[in-house]
Amino acid sequence: MSDETTNGAAAPAPQDAAAAGPAFSVEKIYVKDVSFEAPGAPGIFNEQGQPDLQLNLNQRVQRLNEALFEVVLGVTLTCKIGEKTAYVAEVQQAGVFALVNLPPQGIDVLLGTQCPNILFPYVRQLVSELIQAGGFPPFLLQPINFDALYAETLRQRQQQAGGEAGLASAEPAGNA
Questions:
Q1: Other CB atoms within 10 Å distance of the CB of residue 34
Q2: Which domains does the chain have, with CATH numbers?
Q3: Side-chain half-sphere of 48: how many Cα atoms within 13 Å?
Q4: How far apart are CA 55 and CA 122, in angstroms?
Q5: Where on the phi/psi map is residue 135: left (φ > 0), alpha (ψ -120 to 50), or beta?
Q6: At what angle do helices 146-170 and 115-133 cross, to 10 degrees?
Q7: pTM, full prediction
Q8: What is the pLDDT of residues 128-172, one digit of tens each?
Q9: What sign has the CA pseudo-torsion 109, 127, 91, 69?
Q10: b/e for 140-167, b at 16 or more Cβ within 10 A?
C-alpha cells in the first residue's frame, strides 16, 4: 500500500466530465479597469448645491473556452454640482466563471444573474473607496436587482424576436 501526497492539491478531475453533473464555480475575481477623475478639484470642494448623480451600469460576457466565461460588470458614476463635474468614477470588475454540463438557458441565466450578483459587492466597495480617496463624502451604491434586470432583458429579446418574426412574415413570398 502506498501513500500519495498531493500537498493540498485537489484530486485529478475525472476523465468523464459528463458523469460529474452540472457545476458552477468562481475561478477568479479581479479588477479589469479603474478610473477616477475630479476635473474641478480643488475648486469643486467649495461649490454649494445638491449633487446630481448619474449611474451607468453595463455587463459584458465573453466565452473563453467550452466551460469558462469572463463576465465584466462595469459601473460609471458621474457626480455634478450645478453644471460642474465633481467626479467621475469608473470601475470594471471582472470574474472568470466555470459553467459545466448546463443547458444553454441555464448558462444564460447564471451569466445574467448570479455572476453580476457575485461581482457587485467588489464594485460597490471599490467605487466607495475611490470617491472617499478623492476627498468627497462617502457614497455607497444601493443594491441592484440583477434578477429583475435579466427578466427585462429577456422581455426585450422576446419583443425583438417577435418584431423580426413579424417582419419576416410580412415580406412578400417569392413567385414560384
A1: 14
A2: 21-149 (3.10.420.10)
A3: 0
A4: 16
A5: left
A6: 120
A7: 0.79
A8: 999 999 999 989 999 999 999 999 999 998 898 876 655 544 444
A9: negative
A10: ebeebebeeebeeeeeeeeeeeeeeeee
